[in-house]
């Protein structure tokens, strides 16, 4: 199913929860709705489901307007955060329930339910009740029940938030596998950026009801369209420094840096005297000897994270986050130099936060 969101607005008491959202979700894609709490991602999902009716704009499924189509007629399957299984029914009965409501012949319904149970790998649990299942197993039952109707669109509302870290990792891989095997268009809400980056074909990133960027995960990470996205995506968080561009020397002057950074960027990207927010990811900074590199400072924090360690360095008014191999010979309190990889810089207008030097296809909504 191909989904078009055209100037979609949803307001509550004249306050827009979603504000003129435009996006196209291609058939067979897995799209993550991502953003901070209250950004409008769940409201968007509920509009796709028909639980909310937009106060403006139009939603189209395969070219047909569905604004006023009731949920039961939208050919959707939905999985909620709390699974919503019937505790007095067995796994098989839970999966069969939507088919029973459709009054499908019993033999056909049983065959389809068992096939779906095998697809989600719970075929051996059909006689158990939800209370006898783990969280991951209950999630699989909920997915099987949503898919047994053979919907054209699968909607997932933070489906993994109730699971522990290990199960979340396992289930997000399973959701991707199931989605690919069936080829169903899938939209899922998540606040977990790692989840979105790892399994989505495209991420629709929102803030305060507005679309910030809609693109492939790697594109959002590598070319964030504005400073908010750069700060929101990535762990540890991106470093943001203050600077300005010198059009005469074609170099970037960074506050606190020992020398300007040469930048091969066209002058028309900048205004005279324009203030710049410079972003650089922790993995694009490296530790050097004191007095070397672009910045210098004192190590204030070291956290072991498997093969890497996460480091914070206090450098003047800035706190610089870095990632280094865990066997790096450093200690808290050491004075170090920091080298910034100039080819990996992200530049944003200090006032508007908009990315500078965008190439075609990098802007929000593309």
From TrEMBL:
One of its GO terms (molecular function) is ATP binding. It comes from the Bacteria. Residues 3-233 form the ABC transporter domain. Keywords: ATP-binding, Nucleotide-binding, Transport. InterPro entries: AAA+_ATPase, ABC_transporter-like_ATP-bd, ABC_transporter-like_CS, ABC_transpr_MalK/UgpC-like, Mo/tungstate-bd_C_term_dom, NA-bd_OB-fold, P-loop_NTPase, Transp-assoc_OB_typ2. SUPFAM superfamilies: MOP-like, P-loop containing nucleoside triphosphate hydrolases. PANTHER family: MALTODEXTRIN IMPORT ATP-BINDING PROTEIN MSMX (PTHR43875), OSMOPROTECTIVE COMPOUNDS UPTAKE ATP-BINDING PROTEIN GGTA (PTHR43875:SF1). This is ABC transporter ATP-binding protein. It comes from Paenibacillus gyeongsangnamensis.
């Amino acid at each position: 199913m191909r989904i078009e969101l055209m100037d979609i607005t949803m307001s509550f008491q004249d306050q827009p929860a979603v504000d003129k959202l435009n996006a196209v979700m291609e058939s067979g894609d897995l799209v993550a709705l991502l953003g901070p709490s209250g950004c409008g991602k769940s409201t968007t999902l509920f509009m796709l489901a028909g639980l909310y009716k937009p106060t403006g704009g139009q939603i189209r499924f395969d070219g047909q307007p569905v604004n006023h189509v009731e949920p039961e007629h939208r050919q959707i399957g939905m999985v909620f955060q709390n699974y919503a299984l019937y505790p007095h029914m067995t796994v098989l009965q839970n999966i069969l329930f939507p088919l029973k409501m459709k009054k499908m012949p019993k033999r056909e319904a049983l065959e389809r339910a068992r096939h779906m149970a095998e697809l989600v790998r719970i075929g051996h649990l059909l006689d158990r009740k939800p209370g006898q299942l783990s969280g991951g197993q209950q999630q699989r039952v909920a997915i099987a029940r949503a898919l047994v109707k053979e919907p054209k669109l699968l909607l997932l509302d933070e489906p993994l938030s109730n699971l522990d870290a290990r199960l979340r990792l396992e289930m997000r891989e399973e959701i991707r596998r199931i989605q690919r095997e069936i080829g169903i268009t899938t939209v899922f809400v998540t606040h977990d950026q790692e989840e979105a980056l790892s399994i989505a074909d495209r991420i629709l990133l929102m803030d305060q009801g507005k679309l910030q960027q809609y693109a492939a995960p790697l594109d959002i990470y590598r070319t964030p369209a504005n400073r908010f996205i750069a700060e929101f995506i990535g762990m540890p968080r991106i470093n943001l420094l203050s600077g300005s561009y010198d059009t005469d020397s074609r170099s970037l002057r960074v506050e606190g840096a020992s020398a300007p950074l040469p930048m091969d960027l066209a002058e028309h990207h900048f205004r005279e005297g324009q203030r710049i927010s410079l972003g650089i990811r922790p993995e694009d900074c490296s530790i050097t000897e004191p007095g070397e590199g672009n910045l210098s400072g004192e190590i204030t924090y070291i956290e072991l994270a498997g093969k890497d360690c996460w480091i914070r360095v206090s450098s003047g008014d800035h706190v610089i986050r870095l990632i280094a191999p865990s066997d790096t010979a450093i200690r808290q309190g050491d004075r170090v130099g920091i080298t910034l990889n100039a080819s990996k810089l992200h530049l944003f207008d200090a006032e508007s936060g908009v990315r500078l030097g965008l190439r075609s296809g990098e802007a929000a909504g593309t």
